[in-house]
Specification:
Layout (H helix, E strand, L loop, with lengths): L1 E5 L6 E8 L5 H16 L8 E6 L3 E7 L6 H8 L8 H20 L12 E3 L5 E3 L4
Antiparallel strand pairs: 1-2, 2-4, 3-4, 5-6
InterPro entries: Atg1-like, Kinase-like_dom_sf, Prot_kinase_dom
Protein name: Protein kinase domain-containing protein
GO molecular function: ATP binding; protein serine/threonine kinase activity
């Protein structure tokens, strides 16, 4: 589950991804740890930033940069014109941002294995953050 919250030290809006450790198997747990490691090590405007992690006995909370535009699919449905198509200039800008983020990942020898509209977040300034199964 993902919640919207306020980061107490900075006052910034953040997304908090809650993971119940009891409900994930070892394979999923390894993937989560890998995602944490990757997001924690990268710094790029087109890659979602991991701000903090909070661990309790049963829960793991990932505090992530908040993108208020929802995922790219929701953005397309909200801002798309006829037949829910984004304007060409917007699609071109998103594609450029996606390519820049993927280039950074490739430079780190990381493959994003879940490229789909729901795996990308759009921000108010048409910022695109990469998320998903890295």
């Amino acid at each position: 589950e993902v919640f919207r919250a306020v980061h107490a030290p900075t006052g910034a809006r953040v997304a908090v991804k809650e993971i119940d450790r009891r409900r994930v198997d070892d394979h999923v747990r390894r993937g989560i740890l890998q995602e944490m490691s990757i997001l924690g090590s990268l710094s790029h405007p087109n890659i979602l930033r991991l701000i903090n992690t909070i661990e309790t006995g049963e829960k793991l909370f990932l505090v992530l940069e908040y993108c208020d535009g929802g995922d790219l699919e929701a953005y397309r449905q909200t801002h798309g014109g006829p037949r829910n198509r984004l304007p060409e200039a917007t699609a071109r800008d998103f594609t450029r941002q996606l390519a820049e983020g993927l280039k950074v990942l490739r430079g780190e020898r990381i493959v994003h294995r879940d490229l789909k509209p729901q795996a990308f977040l759009a921000g108010i300034c048409r910022y695109l953050g990469l998320i998903g199964d890295l």
